[in-house]
Amino acid sequence: MAEEVKEKKKKELPIMEVTTCKSTQQMLRKAAEDGVETAFHRAMDMKACPIGADSACCKHCAMGPCRLSSKDPYGKTGICGASIDVIASRNFARMVACGTAAHTDHGMTMLDVFRGVVKGEIKDYQIKDEQKLFDVAEGLGIETAGREVKEVATDLYHELERTYTQVEGEIPFANRVPPKTLAKWREAGIVPRGAMREIMEIMHRTHMGVDQDYENMVKQCSRTALADGWGGSMVATEISDILFGTPSPVLAGVDMGCLDEKQVNIIVNGHEPNLFESLIASVNDPKLLEEAKGAGAEGINILGMCCSGAEVLSRHGVPHAGNFMSTEAVLITGAVDAMAVDVQCIMPALAPLAECYGTKFFTTNPRAKMEGAQHIEFEEHKPRKCTDKVVKEAIGRFKNRKAKIVIPQNKSLGIHGFSHEYINYMLGGTFRASYVPLNDNIINGRIRGVAGVVGCTNPRVRQDYVHVELVKELIKNDILVVQTGCSQIALAKAGLMKPDASVLAGDGLQEVCETVGMPPVLGLGSCVDNSRILIACAEMVKTGGLGDSIADLPVAGVAPEWYSEKAIAIGQYVVASGIFTVFGVTFPTIAETKFHKLLFDGLEKQGFGKWGFATDPYEMAAMIIDHIDKKREALGIMGERERVLMDMADRQALEVEAGEE
After folding, report:
1. Helix, strand, or coil here: 428?
2. Tens of pLDDT, residues 365-386
3. Would you say 164 and 196 are in contact if contact means Cβ atoms under 8 Å apart?
4. Residue 660's Cα: distance from chain center in Å?
């Protein structure tokens, strides 16, 4: 047996089969030379549990754990008598609850910071986008005329706090939902009251002996997930914009080639922008820059990873080193002097791996400590106390570098930062900002529809491959792609975030991209910024011509390489909003069970969206194209109508004519 284990450890990782990222491939070869392992190696050595993957097991009480057969799901029940539908729906509900908790806790953190800024208790952050503050407040019915910023901000804080603490009524941003969609939610009893209430209730329902009707459980799954998409995540996005600035297009680099051997390299990995914003201030501090130069460095180079990196990539143009499945690989370069992390998507393997290369590794959030990591508490009232120390430690490591440094020379430039506000301006200009050109070009057939390609990367599939191939197929078929999170980084590395990538698009989409001057793939930010996609869908309905509800729109969502419970929560709120949503890798149900049929067919018949599943990118694309064509047919816009898209010069000419009149 010992010999078998020893032989298994010698098994060589098929590098080209596990990732398409050239930088990660290079670092995996270096990992083999250095004798270190990564998640790719562990995934190869540990096969996924087939019963767990099918959600056919239950460990919610001590009578079990109970295991049902995916081959004969109705052949037996759990000890308590729970059927496969009860077990699978409870497991699914707990994934929704955890994913929603992650995003809403993030949103609550942002709201806490906002409160501190408004009260004057937090001095290091300020309200940078006053116009957005007033716009959000007015949208929620808060009086703004003639009032001071602090007064409006105080009222906005109290209104948004209801998103979390309210026990009855409807969350504030429910007023952004198209009336027909909201009416459907009310009819079904799934309008969220408050995130804490919904998460508490769904967890109670999953306790043994409580909710044992899978259809009833799915209703609470929808209600809880909607508290994420139209609640916690939306609050996080809006408050981040108000405090740190609303993104607009910015040119930025992506990939490990953004590392610089001659500079102190600091990577921020996680999801909360507060840490990153403070670190940006620290690395630009003249005293710390002078200290870095005194240590022999040319400067301090700060880079992002995962979603906090995607936020500052979109907001400030800070370079991004790579997505989730490259977080270990970037440490193997030996060039990272410090990595500071906060919450979500942080592998425990990073701490010992960082030690191997002498990289300083710091946890900063009290929610997320890690064995083997040095903890430097990040406190919003005195953020520089933490971030200055991170920079000083990084400078010390630069001065005493011992690890062999190998930096992959791969770097892709792209345009990021397409917020809802900027898309509005981009399509219509300063005085006619609107979604009319988008809707018109969907109606006339130049744009077939819109797909939100979002989510993670997963070592169970070839890194980035499904994202990239899927998106190429979609844009080739005139489908405009919007994206967030790790997907955005995958496509940026592939060069799809540049305007000249429109040559890969179909004739119609290419014409629109060239006229507007935009890429065929629009990066919106982090995973909480999926709320921007919801806002865009609501605006498309409001603009007119594409139906009366989100369920009428020729749009789809897809998470090709998902791995986290947050992804399930996102998928469920997108489905509950009325959008067809396709997942790859695996899905926690058994096909042909009643619970599976409800998710994949029944919800759509009730007037919502539905789930889809495929592992092949071309199959995913075919499913999405077929769905969008069915929506176009239902809207009566399958035939192409000749209509000229006005460019900015045309719009300016109209404005001049209007002024002369």
Report:
1. helix
2. 999 999 999 999 999 999 999 9
3. yes
4. 46
Residue 659: the pLDDT is: 42
Q: Do the beta carbons of residue 406 and residue 243 sit within 8 Å?
A: no
Concatenating the DSSP letter of every residue in 200-227 gives: HHHHHHHSTTS---HHHHHHHHHHHHHH
- Domains of the chain, each with CATH number or no CATH: 84-244 (1.20.1270.30), 256-399 (3.40.50.2030), 418-635 (3.40.50.2030)
Residue 180 CB neighbours (<10 A)? 16
Its pTM stands at: 0.93
The two tokens of residue 337 are: 């002097």
**Bridge-partner residues for 525, per DSSP?**
484
Residues 435/447, Cβ–Cβ less than 8 Å: no
Query: Which residues are CB-contacts of 607 (< 8 A; sequence separation ≥ 6)?
Result: 184, 551, 578
The closest of 219, 242, 256 to 603, measured between CA atoms, is 219
Tokens representing 535 are 């806002």
pLDDT at 641: 39
For residue 195, give the nearest of 154, 168, 173, 165 by alpha carbon. Answer: 165
Q: Are residues 225 and 96 in contact, defined by beta-carbon separation less than 8 angstroms?
A: yes
Summarised one tens digit per residue, pLDDT across range 278-297 is 999 999 999 999 999 999 99
Joined tokens for residue 173 = 């941003």
3-state secondary structure of 66: strand
For 51, list phi and psi in degrees, rounded to 5: -70, -45
- DSSP symbol at 191: -
Using only C-alpha atoms, the chain has a radius of gyration, in whole angstroms, of 25
